[in-house]
Write a structure and sequence with these properties.
By secondary structure, this protein is of the alpha/beta class. The chain folds into 2 domains: 3-63 and 331-436, Aspartate Aminotransferase, domain 1 (Alpha-Beta Complex); 65-329, Aspartate Aminotransferase, domain 2 (3-Layer(aba) Sandwich). 41% of the residues lie in helices and 18% in strands. The chain is built from 14 helices and 16 strands. A hairpin with a 2-residue loop joins strand 1 and strand 2. The two termini are 43 Å apart. The model has no long low-confidence stretch (mean pLDDT 96). The protein binds pyridoxal-5'-phosphate. Pyridoxal-5'-phosphate binds at residues 55, 113-115, 118, 141-143, 215, 219-220, 248, 250-251, 276.
Amino acid sequence: MGKGLKEEVLNDDLRYNLRPWVVQTNQNPIAVSHAKGVFFWDYDGKRYFDMSSQLVNSNLGHGNKEINEAIKKQLDDFAYIAPAHAAYTRSNLAKKLIEKAPSNMAKVFFTCGGAESNDNAVLIARAFSGKYKIFSSYRSYHGSTIGSGNLSGDARRFAAERPSAGGFIKFLTPYIYREKIKFKNEKDISKYYLELLYDQIIAEDPSNIAAVTLEAIAGTNGVIIPPKGYLEGVRKLCDEFNILLHIDEVMGGFGRTGRLFAFENFDIKPDIITFAKGITCGYVPLGGVIVSKDIANFYDTNQLLCGLTYNAHPLACAAGIAALDYYYDRYIFKHVRKLGKVLKQTLVSFEKKHKSVGDARSIGLFAALELTADKRTKKPLSDKIPHVINLLRQRGFAAIGRGSNIIIAPPLIITKEELLEALEILDEVLYIVDSEHEK
Ligand SMILES: Cc1ncc(COP(=O)(O)O)c(C=O)c1O
């Protein structure tokens, strides 16, 4: 693993690889040589805490023996078999997921990732309901294909929108930290936004609306936790107007919040759940759409007009079974709930002592620190975020930043000692940021 290889990796990467979401020049990627547990290393032997679990998907960290072995075993039997055939890993993973999902859920359609899952969820919701409009939040990200890109509410939808695919309606969802109206409490925030949504549903004509799509907790837009009663109110509106509720669990699912699904922190049952990321923790790409009994029954007599060569890829399903077993056999969700308290306590203390921290939001091991130039005006420090991410990186803390937020979402297997050590680095960097904008 000499320096020569590092140069070759970086040169070829910059020359031949198109990197998502960035202007291609002046990129400075870390050339990763190996990874284990909550760490990865570059070719110079420098160690990094993987504090955003890559793209909030490496939930069980790197080099998990059980997942590796499960993939190898499936590879020895067969790597691939077409969706028309039945395969043990495929059927077993579907069964395990349905057994763990809410009791109204019945079947799974597997895909290769989050965007594809949401695309197919839209197709399924439209076919089942006979309606076409899909509501989603401005503060959401659901993927970057033409379909899921149009479902996304944040600016990453713009490329997919030109020319716009029809039927994608955006609505405003609550953001407790940034509400302009002075509400008395969370319930009042929910009431206000539910009334707005009610009016918008009426204006769009409920007889055209197939589904409302929401992340239970908006992830990349800054771990935005809904106020009390909001999701339950959306569920009620969906029931009132015969609209399907589709919850996107691509980022929040598989233990991130201390439960299998993030929506389980609230009192709702969706009609459609999409998932990806943590189902295999990135060992092999996999995603899927879980549908209710009513939708599954519909397809008993109607053709499913969805299909992928790599639907339920056996290697990915093998990884999914091993990951799911690992979550439950090792009580990972309980561990997340316990460590989530440590994370919350530390981040709240950062909010109190650091001038640059406007808000600290977290649930389980899913957190965002929102940086502001001024705590009173809440002016976002968005243009500073790349600099902060760089300061962290120099000190061996790898994390993603978006908008004015640093996303902290370490692998769920992180120990308390590792978490506290990493948070010390964050603390040190926040002192630098505080002093920089004092000047
Ligand atoms: C909530 C949510 N949905 C969908 C996606 C898209 O998933 P993928 O990148 O696997 O297509 C993401 C990706 O970050 C996401 O956070």
